[in-house]
Amino acid sequence: MMADCYAENTLRYFPEKCINCRRCTQVCPHRVFAEGNNRAERVNPRACMECGACAKNCPAGAIEVESGVGCAWAMISAALRGKDMDSGECSCGGPESSCCGTHEEEPCSCEGK
Questions:
Q1: How far apart are alpha carbons 26 and 16 in whole angstroms?
Q2: What are the domain boundaries of the chain?
Q3: Which pLDDT belongs to residue 101?
Q4: E strand or H helix that includes residue 71
Q5: Quick one: 93 exposed, middle or buried, by C-beta within 10 A (0-12, 13-18, 19+)?
């Protein structure tokens, strides 16, 4: 039995550094962060696909992630399923606005393994 591909990731959040600019909530394709009263809240860390958008857009350095790891998994999974990442027929399971741009609900490619 393989582990859930998003159960462990490299996302690290340091809320004490957060200046509440809300950029992470705006750029994350999987809604890992949500607006909080005084700082962003990490509400769905397992949804992180490690694209790095949050860390690159955080002016306070409150977020660290090894970008590319989760995206690489999505590409490998697509190849194994005979799908093309650029055609829109493959999805990492995110909403239509996510990096994969799915047009229908498709579960995470690692579910059930």
A1: 20
A2: 12-64
A3: 40
A4: helix 69-80
A5: buried
List beta partners, residue 1: none
Contact 54, 65 (CB under 8 A): yes
Strand 12-13 and strand 63-64: the pairing is antiparallel
Say which amino acid occupies 93.
Answer: G
Report percent pLDDT > 90 for the chain: 39
Contact 63, 51 (CB under 8 A): no
Spelled out in words, what is the top-level CATH class assigned to the domain 12-64? alpha beta
CB 85 within 8 A of CB 106: no
Q: Tokens in use for 111?
A: 């579910």
Question: 45-88: per-residue pLDDT in tens?
Answer: 988 888 889 999 999 999 999 876 666 666 666 677 776 655 55
Question: What does the block give as tokens for 5?
Answer: 């591909």
Report the amino acid identity of residue 108: C
Give the separation between CA 42 and CA 53, rounded to whole angstroms. Answer: 14
> Nearest Cα to 27, choosing from 51, 61, 47?
51
